[in-house]
Amino acid sequence: MAYIDPHVHMTSRTTDDYQAMQRAGVVAVIEPAFWMGQPRTEVGTFKDYYSHLIGFERFRASQFGIRHYCTIGLNSKEANNEALAEEVMELLPLFIYKEGVVGVGEIGYDDQTAAEDKYYRLQLELAREAGLPVQIHTPHRDKKQGTIRSMEVALEHGLAPHMVIVDHNNEETVEQVLERGFWAAFTIYPHTKMGNERMTEIVRQYGPERIMVNSAADWGISDPLAVPKTAQLMLERGISAEAVHLVTYQNALAAFGQSGQMPESDWLQAPAVDQSQRYAGSSILRGGQVPQSDPSSALIR
Coiled-coil segments, which residues (predicted)? Predict the structure, then answer.
């Protein structure tokens, strides 16, 4: 079975993670722009970060047989630095139209401050004008209120629900998100957001339509194999293969494919992996290493 992880921060992960994901069946990933763990202080760091997402990280993924896409946005935490946020907003139109950008994200609310609301709304307008899907980060505190507010504000700005992926759902929010016609994404993240046993029961209760599973693996303790592991558990617990395919592959493709930047042929007709390639003079190989044409090979030389 093939999988898409529609929310994973590969910039924070290792080449071992790419190899393990490829062996587990992950064919494509979407990396939302996000918070790096500490506040950035200069607009240039955002520019370099966005450039990395559409540049070297795409190349790095391709060297392991995985297609890499991203969403570009100003995250909610850093929206509270208004002086910097203003500068970042000027950058965003330079990046959201680039190849491989499948949406504006991850944006939304964290503490639900006035500044977060201001920049969330501005980015919704940007997405609407560009005709791109929106990837919404819902807050960890006051989640239900923040999720409802996120959807209502998106509607206020003319975003159709089918163009909005509401992320980090749980049992408290899923019903309202689905009833309103939005995509409902779930993050399988150890101890904090959602375990895959709970995820299995959500699919059993609500069905697979407009639901997708992601890992949101990042620089914290997280699991880049969360999508294939959840698929395996669902099959073991009696969820149909068709439903598992929808929530771990097809729905993500349908939602983010609306960008026009993510055709399935990208990985179905991909050229063979060639690890001798370079990006701006940089290779993933280190001194004396031999390129592997088969990224699933167990050989270590």
Answer: none
- What's the start-to-end Cα distance of the chain, in Å? 29
Which residues are CB-neighbours of 12 under 8 A, at least 6 positions away? 217, 218, 219
Whose tokens are 């006035």? That residue is 114
- Backbone φ, ψ for residue 114 (5° rounding): -65, -40
Q: Which residues of the chain have pLDDT under 70?
A: 288, 293-301
Q: Which long-range contacts (CB under 8 A, 24 or more apart) does 41-49 make?
A: 41/84, 42/84, 43/84, 43/87, 43/88, 43/91, 46/74, 46/87, 46/88, 46/91, 47/91, 49/11
Residue 94: predicted pLDDT: 98
Q: How many CA atoms lie within 13 A of 219 on its CB side?
A: 7
Residue ranges of domains in the chain, CATH in brackets: 3-263 (3.20.20.140)
Strand extents, DSSP E, 95-196: 101-108, 134-137, 164-167, 183-187
Q: What is the pLDDT of residue 223?
A: 96
pLDDT of residue 291: 77
Q: What residues form DSSP beta bridges with 166?
A: 136, 184
DSSP 208-263: STTEEEE----SSS--TTHHHHHHHHHHHTT--HHHHHIIIIIHHHHHHGGGSS--
Which CA distances in Å does 247 have to 58, 87, 93, 207? 24, 37, 31, 9
**Three-class DSSP category at 87:** helix
CA angle 72, 77, 83 (to 5 degrees): 85
Lookup result for tokens 């930047």: 261
Residue type, 2: A
Distance (Å, whole) CA 151 – CA 148: 5
Which H/E stretch holds residue 32?
Answer: strand 26-32
Asked if 46 and 88 touch (Cβ cutoff 8 Å), the reply is yes
Determine how β-strand 134-137 pairs with β-strand 164-167.
parallel
DSSP 89: H
